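Researcher: Here's a chain I'd like modeled. Treat it as a single chain, no partners, no ligands.
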Amino acid sequence: MPVHQDGSCNGLQYYATLGRDKVDRKLVKQTVMKSLYGMTCIGAHDQIKKRLKDRCAIEDEDELFAASCYATKATLTALGEMFEAAQSIMSWLSDCAKVYSL
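Model: Modeled as a single isolated chain. Structure tokens:
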């Protein structure tokens, strides 16, 4: 089956589509793309929480918090597993910058 790729999605989003996850690309795209620029767990959680609130209309704050915590952990874990080498290089470069700035 031909699949059009335009660069606006990445591999993680395609795998989610192929696996028929209930996670759509809008839920994780911003977090995945910003992970290369030092996205923190708190920032990722805030973004995912906002997306869930917008699309699911979850009124209960406790339920929204629990769902966004779960989705954030799953997203960040998947990124760590799929891009282990890339994250190691980013960490090494960050350590070098810290040493250099002393």
